[in-house]
Amino acid sequence: MESKSISAPVIFDRSREEIEEEANGDVFDIEIGVSDPEKVGDGMNAYMAYRVTTKTSLSMFSKSEFSVKRRFSDFLGLHSKLASKYLHVGYIVPPAPEKSIVGMTKVKVGKEDSSSTEFVEKRRAALERYLQRTVKHPTLLQDPDLRQFLESSELPRAVNTQALSGAGILRMVNKAADAVNKMTIKMNESDAWFEEKQQQFENLDQQLRKLHASVEALVCHRKELSANTAAFAKSAAMLGNSEDHTALSRALSQLAEVEEKIDQLHQEQAFADFYMFSELLSDYIRLIAAVKGVFDHRMKCWQKWEDAQITLLKKRETEAKMMVANKPDKIQQAKNEIREWEAKVQQGERDFEQISKTIRKEVGRFEAKRVKDFKTVIIKYLESLVQTQQQLIKYWEAFLPEAKAIA
Amino acid sequence: MEGRQEAGKENKPSSISVDPQGDSSLQVEISDAVSERDKVKFTVQTKSCLPHFAQTEFSVVRQHEEFIWLHDAYVENEEYAGLIIPPAPPRPDFEASREKLQKLGEGDSSITREEFAKMKQELEAEYLAIFKKTVAMHEVFLQRLAAHPTLRRDHNFFVFLEYGQDLSVRGKNRKELLGGFLRNIVKSADEALITSMSGLKEVDDFFEHERTFLLEYHTRIRDACLRADRVMQSHKCLADDYIPISAALSSLGTQEVNQLKTSFFKLAELFERLRKLEGRVASDEDLKLSDMLRYYMRDSQAAKDLLYRRLRALADYENANKALDKARTRNREVRTAESNQQLCCRRFERLSDSAKQELMDFKSRRVSSFRKNLIELAELELKHAKGGGTQDTWV
């Protein structure tokens, strides 16, 4: 079985055109490529290093083209930093690709087979899409951690991202606690827009998940079709060899060749099925989870504001009580606390308004991007399907005269 | 010129070439077939001007077991030892299809009514295709018999075609099936013994070549047939996969923002078209490729059987020669040995002559059948690829 070095189609190579026709004034003249996966080290401590190349004309960068070597945990570390800074104020931070213990172990152990090559390629493409999405975000692009990630040759190792590390487990526990809290927050939604949007994203999430599951089945079966076609091609060739009628023997060999070419087509189509369609869906399923997270943060923000208001009320009650009881030093204390909590209430209100404003803007940007992404990919995918059919026509048209030539 | 079914039976998959000469004094076809719960009843219609028959046109109803009886009668008849006996049609098997229909009926609440209707349609088409195939297989068997100058004159054949009542031929019971199985093993062992017999030399290059050829050919065509089946299954699988995808895309289309609606709908529509395409590709590959390969796998086995019989006759001839020599040296029962040797010699020569003709017919039949089917396969594949890839409507 020959190993093919096929790389995933670069979905975002339209970024230059995007820049030119960008109506809302965001100009992102920056392009990221992730390439050249290289295994570093041996055994269980081995890891894959990827080359991250940035091409840009933006003045904030010192050079117009530069590259660094990064490993997977570096990407996770980047995401972790960005998430901790921006998620809770309402920015939709693109999620990093998922860890895969099984996949990585195979690579570490040194299996040079097609499945580990596929795994590395899948990961490389995912990392590239992740970075592209991140740099396209106007706010995140300004972040110093992002710039350091892209530019500096040495990066401190992000240790807290290890799958089973203490920090990892703590994160899991926190996520669970968050989920429980969310259930108990009953927010008085004064703005119908948020409720509507949340519902929409919920629906979209369900639909995408369902579609994704079906597409995964398609990818799997198309690969099977390819394998079966290749096997049939071989047996047709063997049959052609056995056949003692010359013209028929020739036609059977030609049939075998046609089937081999068709197998190639199936493989390419399976590739498109996966990298264009399936991965798009799975990326957006995780992006929508990030969007939902941002809405949750807004709820927590509201809760904090609400709590501050309740506390302020209590402090005022205390003050009133103290006045009645005529305890001058306690009254002063109460007045101080009231001032403190009035400030907190004001801050809470400002924070809530800010996060609401940010989310509105973010959702607008997100939706615009989503529409562009889907449209671009769907068109490309449609083209791939049509292209396959056209190739099939060519192959069978070439074969027909051979069949007719059997005397 | 190949013997063909009437133009009226348009939808019958007739992938097998029957008669290179084209003689119409005896025409047989299966004009109707009915599937009852666990059996199929075939209406065999005969049109003939042969003096033997009472009428010029008549029909009888036959079941699969009666076809098998007829086939076995030919195989066991010494007169036809020098001929390739057309392979028996396979038993009609709707099990898999029936099971799938049942499973669908039991219901999976997560699929929409539309998806359900499509899946039901697919399965019903599959059932119908299997039905048509089994009719074609049984018909081809009879038509080859009718086209063969010697086989068509068989008494059992006439009875099969004409006798109005059912032939009271029950299916083989377990003992008989086992017996048949053992006979095959004995036959293989016998063949192995014969070929290793000292002094047994194949004097005829033609047969030497045929034997080598057939052995290899049969194995390879069996392989090709199996793998063609798997390809066909994969195509069907793909067609099934397109159903939920198309449904999900349509559903997304209805709910999405305006800018994306059209894209999703177009993709949904393409998948629906691809589904039908894959289904047709699967069924055409099945008929033109798989079935043809399967038929010639069986036919080449029948040819191998013929070679075995001839070899057996050669061995008997050799043995008779040895017995004659022995009798002559002892000067005992020379007459008997002489007449036996002559009998064996004549039998062997008769078998060799007719086998040669049969094998050449086999080759020409095979070539013309492959030619016809490969052309039709290519034409159908082209038709489907052109139908599924119209590029006019994309955004």
From TrEMBL, chain A:
Keywords: Coiled coil, Protein transport, Transport. SMART domains: PX. The keyword Cell membrane does not apply. SUPFAM superfamilies: BAR/IMD domain-like, PX domain. It comes from the Eukaryota. Gene3D superfamilies: Arfaptin homology (AH) domain/BAR domain, Phox-like domain. Belongs to the sorting nexin family. This is Sorting nexin-2 isoform X2.
UniProtKB/TrEMBL annotation, chain B:
The keyword Transport applies. Residues 1-12 have a biased composition (Basic and acidic residues). Residues 13-26 have a biased composition (Polar residues). Residues 1-26 are annotated as: Disordered. Residues 20-168 form the PX domain. The keyword Transport applies. Keywords: Protein transport, Transport. SUPFAM superfamilies: PX domain. Signal peptide: none annotated. Pfam families: PX (PF00787), Vps5 (PF09325). PROSITE patterns: PX. Belongs to the sorting nexin family. PANTHER family: SORTING NEXIN FAMILY MEMBER, SORTING NEXIN-32. Involved in several stages of intracellular trafficking. This is Sorting nexin. It comes from Acinonyx jubatus (Cheetah). The gene is SNX32.
